[in-house]
Specification:
mainly alpha; 434 Repressor (Amino-terminal Domain); 3 domains; 14 helices; 65% helix
């Protein structure tokens, strides 16, 4: 149900939490149990309420986090309209995002579904909000620019700072799963132990 609301495949879901698609398939089919580690990863990455994931009670997402349901039926027309707005042929768009013209044609005609990877490449290249492209709701462009700018800074920070990654992973698990509010004090102490990181 979570995957369907997010509009992503088993493979895309698996990559996000660093597992395999077959592992996600086993969990969804009830052939294997979900571990505490996997619950923590799912809740942290997708802003899921652990109580909902484990029991089906309460809201699916954490308070303050909302997601628009995907509108896959409208994706072909949104892609076609965007392509024309940017003055691109099907071949031109395909070249820009690294796929074949036939793939763009099939998606626009509704013969084939656009993968989330393809949608993300189109959104990035044409400077539109990925969520808008998927759901047809929300801001089309302005929010995308803000999100991209913020996420770029976050990715750069994490790629440069191994300690930051460890701290954030601890915070996600401690706060979202264990409801351990003392994690914030431990993070402050950890960062203060290293003067080079304390100002960051």
């Amino acid at each position: 149900m979570l995957r369907e609301v997010l509009g992503i495949s088993q493979g895309e879901f698996a990559r996000a939490i660093e597992k395999t698609a077959s592992f996600i398939g086993l969990i969804e089919s009830g052939k294997t149990n979900i571990s505490h580690e996997t619950v923590s990863a799912v809740c942290g990455i997708f802003h899921v309420n652990p109580q909902w994931l484990l029991t089906g009670e309460e809201n699916m997402f954490e308070p303050g986090y909302e997601i628009d349901p995907p509108d896959r039926d409208g994706v072909p027309s949104r892609i076609k309209a965007l392509r024309k707005e940017h003055g691109l042929s099907q071949a031109g768009l395909a070249k820009e995002i690294g796929c074949s013209r036939n793939q763009i044609s099939a998606v626009e005609q509704g013969v084939a579904n656009a993968s989330n990877d393809l949608l993300k490449r189109i959104a990035a290249r044409l400077s539109v909000n990925y969520r808008w492209l998927l759901s047809g709701t929300g801001s089309k462009a302005e929010a995308a620019l803000e999100e991209d700018s913020g996420m770029e800074k976050i990715y750069q920070f994490f790629s440069d700072d191994e300690q930051a990654r460890a701290v954030v992973l601890e915070a996600i698990e401690a706060y979202s799963v264990k409801r351990d509010h003392a994690v914030w004090q431990r993070i402050r102490e950890t960062l203060q132990d290293d003067g080079t990181k304390s100002t960051r």
